[in-house]
Amino acid sequence: MITERFQLMLKPVHLRTWFDRLARAVITVGGLATIISILGIFFFLFREVTPLFTAPSAKLTQRLSVPALLVDEGPAQVAVDEHREIAQVFTSGAIQFFDLASGQPIPLETPAQVKARQITAMASGGGNAPRLAVGTADGEVLFLKVGTTTEFTDQGERRKRPHIRAGQPIPLTKSPIVRLAYRANDQGSLLALLSKGGRLLVARIAADDVAGHHPIITELPQPRGEVTALALDALLENLYVGTADGQVVHVGLSETEPPEMRAAYTVAASSTAVTTLGFLSGDRSLVVMSGDGAVSTWGLVRRADAPSGWTLTQIHTLRAHNAPVTAFAPSQRVKGFVTGDRKGNLFLHHATSSQTLLRLANSEFPIRAVAFAPKGDGLIALDGAGQLSLYQVQNAYPEVTLETLFGKVWYEGYDQPAHVWQSSSGSDDVEPKLGLLPLAFGTLKGTMYALFLAVPIAILAAMCTSQFMHQDLRAKIKPIIEVMAALPTVVLGFLAGLWLAPLLERMLPAVAGMALVLPLLVVLASFGWYLCPLSVKRHLPQGQEALLLIPLLGLGIAGCLWANSFIEGWWFDGNVKAWLSSRLGIQYDQRNALIVGIVMGFAIVPVIYSIAEEALSNVPKIQIAGSLALGATRWQTVLHLVLLSASPGIFSAVMIGFGRAIGDTMIVLMATGNTPILDWNWANGFRTLSANIAVEIPEAPHGGSLYRVLFLAALLLFIVTFVINSLAELIRQRLRDKYSHG
Amino acid sequence: MGEPSKLMRDFWRGGELFVWMTASGVALSLLMVAGMLGLIMVNGLGQFWPGALQETTLKTQETVIGQVVGEEVIPNSITPDSPAGQRRFRYRVGNRDVFGSEYRWINAADIVSSARPEDLTLVERREWGPAFGRITVGVEGAATGSASGSSWTTVKTLVERANQLRRRIEHLEREEIGSINYRIEKARLARHALTLGGRLDPDDADRDRLLLDQIAVLERDYLAKTEALERLHKDAGQEVLFLTLSTGRSVRLSLDEVLAVSRPNGMHWGEKLLAYVRSLWLFVSTEPREANTEGGIFPAIFGTVLMVFLMTLAVMPFGVMAAVYLREYATQGLLVRLVRIAVNNLAGVPSIVFGVFGLAFFVYALGGTIDHWLFPEALPNPTFGTGGILWASLTLALLTVPVVIVATEEGLSAVPRDFREGSLGLGATKFETLRHVIIPCALPGILTGLILAMARAAGEVAPLMLTGVVKLAPALPLDEYLPFLHLDRKFMHLGFHIYDVGFQSPNVEAAKPMVYMTTLILILVVVSLNWAAVRLRNRLRRRFAASTV
Predict the structure, then answer these.
(1) pLDDT by residue (tens digit) across A482-526?
(2) What domain range is A516 assigned to?
(3) Are A346 and A381 in contact (CB under 8 A)?
(4) Does some domain include residue A492?
(5) How much of chain B is helix, strand and coil, in % rounded to 5?
(6) Which of B26, B495, B527 is nearest residue A486 as measured by Cβ atoms?
(7) Which value does ipTM take for this structure?
(8) Which domain holds residue B172?
(9) Is residue B534 part of a domain?
(10) Which residue ranges traverse the bilayer (chain A) (predicted)?
(11) pLDDT in tens, A130-186
(12) What residues of B are in contact with residue A475 (Cβ under 8 Å)?
């Protein structure tokens, strides 16, 4: 050893200083890099979350003029394929595809039966399929499939091929068709049409009647006002008729029964007509646009007083246009839609979050038709001057706003606004509901129940070991309690879920008994000890009360467990669950907040204990000795002096316990039912932010809304625990400084 | 009357009552710890003891064979007529495939007689858990076993022989055929890599042909091995076992289904002890069966140890370096103080947050990039772009690095100032002082930090769930194929095993004892590590408390 050191000294000096500098550089760089990278976690999480809140934007990428043939007054329809390479325009003049890379029309013959007829109405079949129905001036309807198919060559190259397939015309009425609504599903197709004379017809074509030779045509009674808009849903059960005096009439349709006029609703100011009706994707929310430019969504809501049990209710109001709305298109991906008005403005809305995301001034000409690209990342619009405009839209997370995350949201199919977390569902048409409030509530609930149990036990124990306990005993007991902090939470969660939960379900009366018996036992024990003659007391030095209490409380617990059925018989009429539900109206879940309170309390007792203990034992001994010398009893000293001086430390201990309970994952994952509900009740479960992350992130698509919202949850947990711990740490440091100087 | 009321007043004022109340806090904490450990130990260690098999006849003339595993008062059975209530026993009746459930409650009132005949046999099977009954040997095709030649020793030899054969089959399947499969896959990927740039380079054509030949040879090899495997399966012999169940029904047991047979009623305590130790050993050394509800937990132990080891490799240099920088090199000031508090508080940030970070940063960002540059031939199957043991270890390293930093700093600051000044005064450079004086003195502190970090890492589950732990890993992350340590592989972990078997398995009730045992092992690891750290820290404190005086 000595020779080695000696040899070290013999190295040349310049080499040693050089080496010293190198070491300094390495340690500085390495140390700083480590610190920066662990602190960088925050910024990385932040970066993953920010895209949620970046404002949507749209950029005009292309504008081309369509041939004069396509510029007319009649109905129009536009579309663009999912890679935004081929656009299609369909007006009463013709059907034309455009290659967007070159801006040139793609030559493709319009079928003869379409060309030969004057098209007076168009309707899309809904969904993602390129199905269209058109009505002609001769009272016929044709079904068309107009779209683009994507093929891959052997080399893996992508090829697009536009196609038009048209069926044979089906005569339905004698006069020109003015308005048309069309939906199809596997039972068949349904058409609602308004003819020039104001007749309202419904035509049903069965699925096996491919050619449409046998349509079943029913005439509907005339509504009060002039019919201005029609909308059919994909169930083929509901027809909505918009009128010129601002009403929507709900007509119930069925295959077997005659059509039934359910009710008429006033949806716009009385003098303004309903100009357009449409559905959001999934065909459950009706979008109503009226002549004054107002835009709102409506849905069927359960109401007991309505004759059919349902009424059409206004759900969301969106930003109104300054001019009548002339075009509408739903997004195929989310509950969003786009509207265009007569003055050439395009508004992008998202219904569920009640927000109008973007306003685009397209041109001064009326918008004739508009459509989303299938992935929602593009828009195509045709205006009255024959200009086709293409926009690139950046709007990946329209459904996430601060209000939808933390406020009540009126989701489709709900009877009122609610806080809901339901990230996935069986059907694509049901939107994800990402309300973080139930989860934040669950986190708080679990934490509160845990603290409720842990704080008294931990602080009492800390007072006992730091002030009253014999030093030798303290040296043995303190590490035992502290090692509890190291127990993996998965172990506690397992015990909570598989041992305690079933046990507590049977032993609830015993636990209620314990809450009464255990404090009573302590009181009796202390009084008995007080009455004991000195000759007995001498055998146990002061400060070992805990040793006496362990067997006593153990016996008390065992006694309560033994007496479980008796307690159940006396207090709870022999069946505690029935008693709870009949007397208190509480439905007992096997995995509930009480279990979490007990087990998570167990997990944070050592955390709170060890910090509170430190704070309590740091109170200078000289002050305590002074108080005792002045005649105060040991309890009075602790209550009036020690507890007061150490109160900031105890507060910081509770805060750190709080921080620990908030972030715990495994216990709540295993011991609660993970049901995201808002209810303070001790007898039911909840779902916390942390457990929610663990459950859902493996299924969340990378970069999607759910993924980023879960990151937001993680970021919130990070910030909350970090702030709480920092505050607690500051308090502790100040306390330590105070006593080290004093 | 004045006397007792004064006594009460003094008792209240003196506050002894409250002192006892505080003591009840300690007593409750200790009771909870002891109760929990006791519960886990009894449930975990108890299951390996060969329990007696009861043959019980019921009033309905039905016979039940099983182990009594529990007893309780029937809920709501206490009536004025029977104040003690009715008791019932919980029997483990086994034969899940026949009875549907492995457990059954039997009311004490229904029992006519109960005995422990020595010829009751416990059969451990590859599937469906244990079976209880009387065993006979028969030949394939027979309806029942023949009484002759069915002596207990014959049965045991047969089972022993079957086990040897199974081991050979397993070796062939896993080691030899597995190795061929592995090499074929490698060669296939290498070929794919050659054609990745679009066309096959003429220079590479030779190599490609070589690879093709190699694959052909390997495939021939593969065929030969599978034939050998089939021959082995045929060797299994004609004998089968028949088990007469409690219902009197005879069930055919093919020998390759049977893992072990035993007659616990005939064992004396020495044999039982031996059997106990043997099953305990099998538990920690074998692989799980039947969706992890039977068999051992060796891969989980191995995964946990390897993950903690990798984490330690990552966390040690960086944690120590950061602490040394903060304490010895950085200019002490407000900024360093803030950084110190921040680092300290990172230890309190929920582990799931680190898991989320690990998923986004390591798995998606880093792993995705690595796949793109280094393993394009395997795409779209991710190599590092999915959870794996490396990412899990690094995530846990981030989680535990604050622990190491704090403990190391504590160790460094406990080194008396005189030591440094002495060393510097004698002409040593700062680094020499650090290396030869300060670090050796602070070593216990550094080790304490490391041990605490290891204990924390061994017990964490939530971050692992996002970064690479699986319920059943097809292969260990360490094997005999280059490069031996497969950092991209998924792994099993004790903590996750507990979660998975306890909450996701189809037969939780039968798996419970196993989970208790797994829990016990995990607690032993974590608590002993912590205990060591606490002891080390106390020694450190005492040593310097003495030397600074």
Answers:
(1) 888 888 999 999 999 889 988 888 888 888 888 889 999 998 888
(2) 437-741
(3) yes
(4) yes
(5) 65, 15, 25
(6) B527
(7) 0.86
(8) 141-237
(9) yes
(10) 21-46, 448-468, 480-501, 507-534, 546-572, 592-612, 638-662, 706-728
(11) 788 999 888 889 888 888 888 887 766 788 888 888 888 888 888 899 899 998 888
(12) none
